[in-house]
C-alpha cells in the first residue's frame, strides 16, 4: 500500500488549499478513505472520510463547512479541498486507507503533507 499526499504549503488565514493523495498497491475503489491531521505536540485527529463510491462523506466538527473530501476512482486519487483556512488548521495532513475493525490511528497512511496557516 502506497499513499502519497501532496498539495500542502504555507497559506494565509482565509486562504485555500487542495490536497491530493495518489495511491497504489490496492484496489482503491474497494475502500473507504480518510484524511487525518496531526499538529506538533497533539494527537492524530480525524478530519474526514469518504466511502468507496464517493457518495457518503463525513467531517469533523472542526472543519465542517470549510472542507470537502472527494475521490477519483479512475485515477486512484483522494482529494481534500480546504477553504477559509485558520491558524488552528496548521498540521501535517495524512491520507489513509480504511482498515476493517481497526481504530483510525491504525489505518495505513503515507508520509503526509504539511499545511501551515499563518500571516
Features:
mainly beta, globular, 119 residues
Walkthrough of the structure:
Helices cover 0% and strands 46% of the residues. The model has no long low-confidence stretch (mean pLDDT 96). The strands form 2 sheets. It has a 6-stranded mixed sheet, with no helix packed on it. Strands 1-3-8-7 form a 4-stranded antiparallel sheet, with no helix packed on it. The radius of gyration is 13 Å and the shape is globular. By secondary structure, it is an all-beta fold. It is built from no helices and 10 strands.
Binned, the helix content reads under 10%
Give the topology string: H per helix, E per strand. EEEEEEEEEE
Low confidence ranges? none
Structural class: mainly beta
In DSSP terms (H or I, runs of 4 or more residues), the helix count works out at 0
Mean pLDDT: 96
Radius of gyration, whole Å: 13 Å
- Strand sequence of the main sheet, in spatial order? 2-10-9-4-5-6
Topology diagram in text:
Blueprint: E1 2-6, E2 9-11, E3 17-24, E4 33-38, E5 45-50, E6 57-59, E7 67-72, E8 77-82, E9 91-97, E10 113-117
Parallel strand pairs: 2-10
Antiparallel strand pairs: 1-3, 3-8, 4-5, 4-9, 5-6, 7-8, 9-10
